[in-house]
Design a protein that fits this description.
Chain lengths: ~450, ~450
């Protein structure tokens, strides 16, 4: 093929907000776009906690990327795990089971996002998984609903209490939203469904190392959020650090140095993120360094120092202290696409990325949210209405909007949850989490509708 | 506790149609009901193939059993795998991870259903799984959609063809419905989403050992179904036996003894069922035997010979050649409940179970089904409309009806599929299925939107 004839090749790594908005930004450009992602879906991350807590189906928040992009004829989608970016060769290597693919590029947009960070305690991951992927969310769904199944057949009150205690680590928006939903699950959805246990007596404990939850929202909203969380049944433990996580609980240290233990079978980690390891790989090749969260310091136009043809966007990018939120990813992805377009048109000037803060919000419970938009600070029902509208607008696809709206009507209206199916493998997976019982410990389950523990 | 005071204890094993209708049949009875099931959901089995092929979410066809039964105060639900039924002790033993539970009964209804049968070739299971549980359906969803992801990154045409060939084994309703939906997926949903492969050129091959598909529907409907299947792109191979299943394909023998091989990475088994092994356990204890499909020959009132207090219903029961269909399970479950009620009222006469055949139906493709209801034989659109109505009526819960209707509108209207999210573990799971490639076999993926295989 002749070099003069072929179109400018753009490779985009990642199918999250950054990657998707980059590809879409190139839809009218005379380029060949290849998006490479290890997931075959575009994840609407801000609603993932609702998949985990049984409100939404995975299809509603994770449409197939190639379906989303099917009409963009200059783009193609490859599923694969990127193992190597070669800046000298301008090639991205990715693998699928049994297959290695090398994609050459003229321009590259790296939007591989971030995963959970355990701040050096990677051994916590086994017992306190994060919620970053669909796999995570479905596994957590199995753990949450499965915990009550285990508690219902249990007879030892100590073990029952352990199954009915839920620990969420991290008081940012994700941690607050998960804790709030687990509390509503135990208080509004599950009561009435069990005969031996009372789901409403479950404990949901939210740990935060700093002095406040939702610290980024400012003092007043942070306090309102804390109040709402307590109202729905979440115990808040601020100024508390997690120093140990094991099968049956967590070890914590309070600000005054007091160490204590909380027995809990279900733990969720929402305390921090680390950029994709592709960041460190890139940094190594261009003689720069990554920050404490694994992010690369980029030029004002989001390009890699010394490599104007490579853009790093979204959660992987370190630029002017911008936060790792969806809006930054969307806007920086779109900016990279626009930069490529401008250069192809022969405009040499490199424009700096300007972030337009559209605000942030977090739902605490049904009908209750906090939002800060520009100078505006909202809490309670008005903030929740805004949350509803914004999330409906950004969800990809009419069907997903309609379905989510219906599922929300069910969840917020009746308290029921429509997507709580627990697979058998999830139930079996609880085994590793279950403390060993002697084989002779036959409990007795007399059919008794009155809630008394039965005797044979 | 005093024997005089306590209510009559009924244990129901299984949360399928048989078990659920048995429990519901006892809702006004002065009894304590315990339902024990290894799944925490009630599965609407007739629509499971739609979960596998990306049309419906698992929540739509598998609501939590305890949610369905939450208002029935005399019933409780235990999740657990029944390991032993002791007819002498009148006790059912079940296990959950780390916990063994023993439930005593006065009356027992066994409705544990059936699983896939490989007719002595259990080694086929690894490569040609069945579709009987939510786990199965989600795994198959991953295999189907994942196969196209693998094909898209592949460069070897032989390997691509292998990923694009789908084999369905068994020409009964399940096999026909799965094959029809896979064909529609390849012809209506996926075209336009890929750049290297053409999904419409996929092969979907339905194997049937006998001379006809849907033999139970009679000659004319069977022929109409075969015609419709061919019209949507399914290759029919009747009078053909599967003699080998391995990682990359199947070995078949035609009626004239010709042996041949079909290369296909994705295989689905829908050829036969075997009743739960609890059947053989029961038979061993009461001196009777199970038939070739593992079912127990029961008395005319569905009770176990010599044990009038034990009922065996649904797919586990062998009675007057009744088929293993949802209606038999529902009606026999309800009959067992009615029998228990009658005896508690002091009516000693044991009434024989009378099956009211409400007919059977199978969807072949969108707007196309076959149905035989009493003397009535319907095919095409009228049968499909009837299929739609009947399935809406029997789906549990208003939300699930509305959601399914919307998902069907999407699937049958636009051809899109709303629930096709493939987990990363499913993609990784394809690895075992992938033939080894030498590490040096780097394919080249030039970003080319024209569908040409790229070159570097």
């Amino acid at each position: 093929m002749n070099d003069e004839q072929r179109a400018h090749r753009v490779v985009v790594i990642g199918s999250g907000f950054g990657g998707l908005f980059a590809v879409r930004g190139l839809r009218r450009a005379p380029v060949d776009v290849t998006m490479i992602s290890r997931t075959a879906y575009h994840l609407f991350q801000p609603l993932l906690y609702q998949v985990a807590t049984g409100i939404l189906s995975e299809g509603s928040v994770a449409p197939a990327t190639r379906e989303v992009l099917r009409r963009q004829r200059n783009a193609r989608v490859l599923t694969g795990e990127v193992t190597r970016i070669d800046l000298a060769d301008r090639t991205v290597t990715s693998t699928m089971p049994g297959k290695v693919t090398a994609a050459p590029y003229d321009s590259l947009i790296v939007a591989a996002g971030a995963s959970q960070s355990y701040f050096g305690h990677d051994d916590f991951a086994e017992h306190a998984p994060g919620v970053k992927t669909i796999d995570d969310a479905l596994a957590l769904r199995g753990r949450l609903f499965g915990a009550f199944e285990l508690a219902e057949v249990e007879t030892d009150p100590v073990v029952i209490a352990r199954w009915q205690t839920f620990v969420v680590i991290g008081g940012g928006p994700t941690g607050v939203e998960i804790a709030g939903q687990i509390a509503e699950l135990t208080r509004r959805t599950l009561p009435g469904e069990f005969r031996n246990i009372d789901p409403a007596r479950s404990r949901v404990i939210l740990f935060e190392a700093g002095p406040k939850v939702l610290a980024g929202f400012g003092g007043r909203l942070s306090e309102k959020a804390a109040r709402e969380l307590r109202r729905v049944g979440v115990e808040l433990r601020v100024n508390t650090k997690i120093v140990g996580v094991d099968e049956t609980g967590v070890d914590v240290v309070a600000a005054d140095g007091t160490r204590s233990r909380v027995e809990a079978m279900s733990k969720v980690w929402a305390a921090g993120v680390a950029a994709s390891p592709l960041g460190a790989q890139l940094a190594g090749q261009c003689g720069t360094q990554v920050d404490h969260a694994g992010r690369i310091k980029v030029e004002p136009d989001c390009s890699l120092p010394g490599h104007p043809e490579v853009f790093v966007v979204g959660d992987m990018m370190s630029l002017k202290n911008l936060p790792g939120v969806a809006q930054v990813a969307m806007q920086s992805g779109r900016h990279a696409a626009a930069e490529i377009l401008r250069r192809l048109k022969g405009e040499p000037s490199r424009r700096p990325f300007r972030y337009r803060d559209k605000g942030s919000m977090a739902t605490v419970a049904r009908f209750r949210a906090v939002a800060c938009i520009g100078g505006l600070r909202l809490a309670g029902f008005p903030a929740w209405l805004m949350w509803l509208l914004v999330h409906l607008v950004y969800l990809v696809g009419f069907r997903n909007r309609l379905m989510s709206l219906l599922d929300w009507a069910v969840a917020f209206g009746s308290g029921r949850r429509s997507e709580r199916t627990v697979t058998r493998s999830a139930i079996r997976g609880l085994q590793a989490e279950s403390p060993p019982h002697p084989a002779s410990d036959h409990g007795s389950a007399q059919p008794s509708a009155s809630g008394r523990p039965g005797t044979v």
